[in-house]
Amino acid sequence: MHKTSRFFLILLVCILIVSSVGCKKSSGRNGKLYLYNWTYYTPDSLVEQFEKETGIDVVIDNFASNEEMFAKIMAGGNEGYDVIFPSSDYTAIMIKLGLLAELDHNLLPNLKYLSPLFKEKAAYDPTYRYSVPYFMGSSGIAVNTERVPSDYDRTWAIFADARMAGSMSMLDDMREVMGAALKHLGYSGNSTDIEELQRATDLINTQWKPNLVKFDSESFGKAFSRGEFVVVHAYPENVFAEISADKWSTIDFFIPPEGGMMYIDNMVIPKGARNNQAAHAFINFIHDPKNYAVFLDTFSLPPTTNTGASAFMKTEHSFFSIEDLSNSDNISDLGSKLELYNELWQTIRYQ
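User: That's the sequence. What structure does it adopt?
Assistant: Structure tokens below.
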């Protein structure tokens, strides 16, 4: 673990003080570091290790969606947290609104381990001025190979296969579903061309939706494990977490070759954070390759973000590789054009 000289200085002061009056761990809010992260996305072992190494207590609040996180931040919650974990589209919004503090790269030497692919995909902040990637991943398709015809199509066209009608689901997520259709048609997953968007909507409504049980972003992993669905549009970690490892060989998870909608979850420091230096220390701690390998092993994720972590990983099975992301598009902030999606999504979900 590489630490900065200033952070070492704080720890040294604590060590000197503890012999007489006891170390107070760090400045600000009784030495606590407040994180606001996605549910089940912060390995307990890493939190415990960071606390042990630094003497800083970590307090974690969770959110289930970017929308939930953003609403709280806009209501003044940015002053209550030191590190927040928004996805890339909301990171871009927060940058535009001036909600984020600029990062001190002198305190983040482990930036050298970040994947070059990130800069290619992260047009919103390619120089890490305001954000550091936490994980770069993608949704895809999970297939129960024991219960589907052997000649199924390993593209988004699988949802048009009427042989599996009544046993498939797609995510209840506008950008994910419409992005999949756009990519399948050869367009950008962030297209704002009304004709392209209409073609994608027609594809979903006429060819995919008739074969779906529902759009589901909450229980698809459990439903797949119970056999209620045999094909699901999914995040792999949610699927494999519900199934014992001895059955993983029966699951074919793939990102279609035409690409899909990938995501980059980031670590950012909001303006007004009271433990700015401890926040930098935590971000740098995460991207120490040995620590990042623990994060990846915990969730059986591939090393898409940190180039040094693979040497320390214990997991032999990854759900996808960094190469699988090459044709995918990162979900981008569409600004006022988002309303085009909202209008068309209503015809998909409610008509």
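The first strand starts at residue 32 and ends at 38.
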